[in-house]
Amino acid sequence: MMSFQKIHKLTKRDFLKYTSGILSTAILPYPYQLALAKEHWDVIIIGGGTAGLPAAIFAAKKGLKVLVIEKASVIGGTLFLSTGQIAGAGTVFQQQKGIMDSPDQHYDDIMRINGNTSDPDLTRIVAENAGTTINWLAANGYKVFDHHPVTKIAHDPFKVERYIQGPMGGISILNAIKPIVDQEITKGNITVLLETNAVDLMQSKNGDITGVITHNKEGRLMDYKGHKVILASGGCASNPDLYEELHNVPLYCQMAYPNSQGIGLILGQSVGGYLRGGEKYSPLYGMILTDDKIPSTMYGLTKNIIERLPWEILVNSKGKRFVQEDHESVDAIEHTIMQQPAHRHWAILDQNMIDEMPQLIYGWPNKRIMTESKKQNMIKQYGSIRELAIKSELPALSLESTVQEYNNNLENNRDDTLGRQYRPLPIEKPPFYSIRMSGWSLCSFAGLAINKDFEVIKPSGEPINNLYAIGEVIGFGATSGNAYVNGMGVTPALTYGKLLGESI
Ligand SMILES: Cc1cc2nc3c(=O)[nH]c(=O)nc-3n(C[C@H](O)[C@H](O)[C@H](O)COP(=O)(O)OP(=O)(O)OC[C@H]3O[C@@H](n4cnc5c(N)ncnc54)[C@H](O)[C@@H]3O)c2cc1C
């Protein structure tokens, strides 16, 4: 999901490009909005993002009259921010390189990596249909890096090369989808209401969903009636209070799309649906936060074991090593980080490492660590381990003995206490450095429970008539389990969107 190589900087001109050709309440006179509210739509989709747009396209292609209600002034949602790494078996990108793969292998890989913690039925649907979805994108101009597919980027590897990314990340995907939406708008099959906030669902006395209540830019409440309503409004990873309530973990770092406020979770629940999956929360590795605010922002991100073998050691707030730093599974390391107070972990290193090791922090020459230690609170430098510990608010004697033990084992050719194999240098040349990192996430693991037909279900398992949910509103945990499995955010959103549009 994350690799943080610079892929694309979105300019104002790019942004304008995504608004062109779309009907918007900002430009629609009120009588026109009223006229739309008098219609009876076949499908109303809340959210014109990763999942909502394919759903709109495929429903429109079937001849259904589709209304997309979008809070932002542009369609695209999280695709504007997402690194857009996706995976599927049997893609044209695999065929071009002669890579043999199958949906069964994809499914087995996902379940192996997440330890069977994602929903098996929903995962199976992704594995069986992701290849076709990606091939549809490719047929519409989607391109990936020349050296892709690969087995891994920043997360535990697949056994087969099936992981791909476009040079512009999520925008490479949006660039394939947006022209098709525009065509359907021109044909009159899709209507998009921008800057329109879905605030409630309409429900008949017998519990069927009958439409959506919105709040438009001018502050007016409007009702839109529809036979079917799809919640595709994303997760809640920009809503710190809701995020913490559902995951029992603070939102340490805010990286999600600003409109990921969790409205779909709230609306689905308000009509009888229920949430599940918050307990699947797992942190990502190595975020250097800007400050101690909750949520904070990214100051820098350190590379994990999938990207780079560690030279430094990792310690917890007790000044003790807590994990085999070169463990082959970043997922295993991330789960150990989750057991540390506030998910904090410190890298401890010396000057020799700064001078010789491969890049530690994405986009930073290692020498920048030296200068940042003079101005950034998360990075400290000192001439002795004891003083470094005091400056870093770590127990001094404990950190000293941790470093001594690591060095002694290495210098005397003894096995590492935690089984680490890769130990290029001892930590011995001052000044010494500490980098305080935090576990973090950008996805909501909690979401609405749905069945295999994407219908929102009640705790009894019975579907709520006419209400569907796709994308992160169903919870990242449903598709990725308690791990970050390559592509299991964007791929299910696109795939379910396509399938639901075709079948609704
Ligand atoms: C920085 C970042 C990088 C990521 N990288 C990857 C990756 O490489 N691979 C991967 O698999 N996953 C990745 N993910 C996760 C993945 O991108 C998301 O899970 C996925 O894009 C969510 O799609 P969605 O359709 O549910 O939401 P979105 O794409 O966000 O669409 C939701 C839409 O609903 C709209 N909306 C919200 N509220 C309302 C409302 N009240 N009324 C009307 N409209 C509303 C929003 O404006 C938005 O347009 C990443 C996430 C982030 C934040």
3D architecture notes:
This protein has 504 residues and is an alpha+beta fold. Among the domains are: 12-79 and 176-231, FAD/NAD(P)-binding domain (3-Layer(bba) Sandwich), CATH 3.50.50.60; 284-440, Succinate dehydrogenase/fumarate reductase flavoprotein, catalytic domain (Flavocytochrome C3, Chain A, domain 1), CATH 3.90.700. It is elongated, with a radius of gyration of 24 Å. The longest helix has 20 residues, at 120-139. α6 (120-139) crosses α16 (490-503) and α13 (385-391) packs across α14. Strands 1, 2, 5, 6, 7, 8, 17 and 18 form an eight-stranded mixed beta sheet that branches. The chain has helices spanning 12-19, 30-38, 52-61, 92-96, 103-113, 120-139, 170-186, 240-247, 263-270, 330-338, 351-356, 367-372, 385-391, 396-411, 476-480, 490-503; strands at residues 40-46, 66-69, 86-87, 163-164, 190-193, 197-203, 209-215, 221-231, 275-276, 284-289, 298-301, 313-315, 344-350, 379-382, 432-440, 447-448, 455-457, 463-469. Bound molecules: flavin-adenine dinucleotide.
Low-confidence blocks of residues: 2-8, 20-26
Q: How many beta-strand elements?
A: 18
**Category from helices, strands and their pairing:** alpha+beta
Query: What is the fold-level CATH name, i.e. the topology of the domain at 284-440?
Result: Flavocytochrome C3, Chain A, domain 1
Give the overall shape.
Answer: elongated
Beta-strand content bin: 15-25%
Bound molecules: flavin-adenine dinucleotide
The appropriate CATH architecture of the domain at 284-440 is Alpha-Beta Complex
Overall CATH class of the domain at 284-440? Alpha Beta
Mean pLDDT: 94
